[in-house]
C-alpha cells in the first residue's frame, strides 16, 4: 500500500498570505490528523477528522482550519500567515488496531513564512 | 491528558540492547501506551503499543509495569538506523497524540 502523501513538500509564503496544504491518507484509513512541528514547541496536535467531521481539536487559533473530503483526503488551511507559522506540518492517517488508533505519518510540508 | 516523563537523551553502543524508560504515574485505566520514533528529517513512525501486558513485534518489545505507572521500550540490538527521538504517549481517544519532548537516542558504532 502507498503511504501517506503530502503536497507540496516545501512552500514559501509571506506574512498575511494564506496557504492550503493537502494530505492523502493510506487507502482505507478514515481518520486524518494534522500536527505542527517547530524547534521551540516540538510536535503539537492541530486537529483530527474522521468521516468528514472534525473529531478532535488542539489549542490553535481559528486561523488554522481543515476539512476532509468523502474520499478521506484532507486539507489544512492557514490564513493571515505569521512568521511564527513557519514549521513542518505533518499529516497522519490512522488505523484502528488492537483497541486503539495507530497513526501513520507522511513526510510533512515544510512551510516558511517570510 | 495524562503526561509522560522520559529522559532527554540516552546513548547506546551498536548491537547492544537499549532500554528506554517512560514514567506515566497519572495513567488512567483506559489509556493505551504508545511509542513512536522520529528519525532525522522524517515524520514520526509507529513502534509499538500496549495496554497491560508486555508486547513484542518485529521492531521492539514493550514492558509495562504491573501498576502501569511506567513502561520500558526495549530495542534488542541497536543499530545505527535506530538513532532517533523516541516518544512515549498515552492515548485514550483516537486521533490525538500529545507528544512530549521524547528521548533522543544516539547509537555509537
Give an overview in words.
- The complex is a heterodimer of chains A (114) and B (109).
- Chain A has strands at 5-7, 10-13, 19-24, 31-38, 42-50, 53-57, 64-68, 74-78, 87-97, 100-105, 109-113.
- With 114 residues, chain A is an all-beta fold.
- Chain A is globular and about 40 Å long.
- By secondary structure, chain B is mainly β.
- Chain B has strands at 9-13, 18-23, 32-38, 45-50, 55-56, 61-64, 70-75, 84-91, 103-108.
- Chain B is globular.
- The interface between A and B is medium-sized, with 28 and 23 residues.
Question: Any idea what the radius of gyration of chain B is?
Answer: 13 Å
The secondary structure category of chain B is mainly beta
Number of strands of chain A: 11
* Tally of contiguous helical segments of chain B: 0
Q: Beta-strand level of the residues of chain B, as a percent range?
A: over 45%
Query: Which sequence of strands runs across the widest sheet of chain B?
Result: 1-9-8-3-4
Uncertain runs of chain A with pLDDT below 50, 5 residues or more? Answer: none
Q: What is the H-and-E element order of chain A?
A: EEEEEEEEEEE
Q: Tell me the span between the first and last alpha carbons of chain B.
A: 38 Å
Helix content of chain B: under 10%
Overall 3D geometry of chain A? globular
Quick structural overview:
Chain A is mostly beta strands and 114 residues long.
List the helices and strands and how they pair.
The complex is a heterodimer of chains A (114) and B (109).
Chain A: E1 5-7, E2 10-13, E3 19-24, E4 31-38, E5 42-50, E6 53-57, E7 64-68, E8 74-78, E9 87-97, E10 100-105, E11 109-113
Parallel strand pairs in A: 2-11
Antiparallel strand pairs in A: 1-3, 3-8, 4-5, 4-9, 5-6, 7-8, 9-10, 9-11
Chain B: E1 9-13, E2 18-23, E3 32-38, E4 45-50, E5 55-56, E6 61-64, E7 70-75, E8 84-91, E9 103-108
Parallel strand pairs in B: 1-9
Antiparallel strand pairs in B: 2-7, 3-4, 3-8, 5-6, 6-7, 8-9
Amino acid at each position: 500500500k502507498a503511504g501517506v502523501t503530502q503536497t507540496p513538500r516545501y512552500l514559501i509564503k509571506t506574512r498575511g498570505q494564506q496557504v492550503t496544504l493537502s494530505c492523502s491518507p493510506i487507502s482505507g484509513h478514515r481518520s486524518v490528523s494534522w500536527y505542527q512541528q517547530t524547534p521551540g514547541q516540538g510536535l503539537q496536535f492541530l486537529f483530527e477528522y474522521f468521516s468528514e467531521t472534525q473529531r478532535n481539536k488542539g489549542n490553535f487559533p481559528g486561523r488554522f482550519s481543515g476539512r476532509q473530503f468523502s474520499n478521506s483526503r484532507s486539507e489544512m488551511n492557514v490564513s493571515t500567515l505569521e512568521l511564527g507559522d513557519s514549521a513542518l506540518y505533518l499529516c497522519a492517517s490512522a488505523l484502528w488496531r488492537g483497541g486503539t488508533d495507530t497513526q501513520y505519518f507522511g513526510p510533512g510540508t515544510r512551510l516558511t513564512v517570510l | 491528558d495524562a503526561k509522560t516523563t522520559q529522559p532527554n537523551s540516552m546513548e547506546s553502543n551498536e548491537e547492544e540492547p537499549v532500554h528506554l524508560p517512560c514514567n506515566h504515574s497519572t495513567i488512567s485505566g483506559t489509556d493505551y501506551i504508545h511509542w513512536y520514533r522520529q528519525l532525522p528529517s522524517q515524520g514520526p513512525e509507529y513502534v509499538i503499543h500496549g495496554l497491560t501486558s508486555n508486547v513484542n513485534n518485529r521492531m521492539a518489545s514493550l514492558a509495562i509495569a504491573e501498576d502501569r505507572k511506567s513502561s520500558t521500550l526495549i530495542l534488542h540490538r541497536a543499530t545505527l538506523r535506530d538513532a532517533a527521538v523516541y516518544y512515549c504517549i498515552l492515548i485514550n481517544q483516537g486521533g490525538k497524540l500529545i507528544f512530549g519532548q521524547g528521548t533522543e537516542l544516539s547509537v555509537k558504532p
